[in-house]
């Protein structure tokens, strides 16, 4: 329905955004498509049409900010490319560190759990 049409609309704009922000060395076009797909699938359980329309509106607003370069390359990297690459490396890597150290190395805000 509306969500898949919006996804295709975004995918048609991605090559232009990719060239405009010169993000070739940071993220590939197929990775950008995967990132957009994952963002849309985060809300796959939403059934209320008003909420769906609101999410599409916010998505179009975000798309427009990147097309008009109100958000620049830095925003593209920190909001989309970097979290995507961190999720890939976090899934693949198994360390012998404690949960706190793994959290400390991968995020800005480490989680603290207390032993009881």
Structure overview:
The protein is mainly alpha-helical. The chain has five helices and no strands. Helix 1 runs parallel beside helix 3. The protein is globular, with a radius of gyration of 17 Å. The chain starts with a helix and ends in a 10-residue tail after the last helix. 5% of the residues are buried. The mean pLDDT is 84.
Provide a brief overview of the structure:
The chain is mostly helical. It has five helices and no strands. The protein starts with a helix and ends in a 10-residue tail after the last helix.
Q: How many whole angstroms does the radius of gyration measure?
A: 17 Å
Structural class: mainly alpha
Beta-strand portion reads under 5%
Q: Roughly what percent helix?
A: 55-70%
Report the total helices. Answer: 5
Element-level helix/strand string: HHHHH
Number of strands: 0
Q: Low-confidence spans: pLDDT under 50, at least 5 residues?
A: none
Distance between the termini: 50 Å
Query: What's the shape?
Result: globular
Taking all residues together, what is the mean pLDDT? 84
Q: Mind describing the biggest β-sheet? A: none
């Amino acid at each position: 329905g509306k969500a898949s049409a919006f996804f295709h609309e975004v995918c048609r704009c991605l090559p232009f955004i990719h060239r405009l922000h010169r993000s070739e060395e940071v993220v590939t076009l197929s990775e950008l498509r995967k990132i957009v797909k994952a963002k849309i699938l985060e809300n796959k359980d939403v059934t209320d049409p008003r909420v769906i329309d609101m999410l599409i509106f916010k998505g179009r607003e975000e798309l427009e900010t990147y097309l008009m370069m109100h958000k620049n390359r830095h925003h593209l990297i920190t909001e989309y490319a970097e979290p995507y690459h961190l999720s890939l490396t976090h899934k693949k890597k198994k360390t012998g560190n404690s949960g706190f150290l793994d959290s400390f190395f991968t995020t800005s805000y480490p989680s603290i759990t207390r032993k009881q």
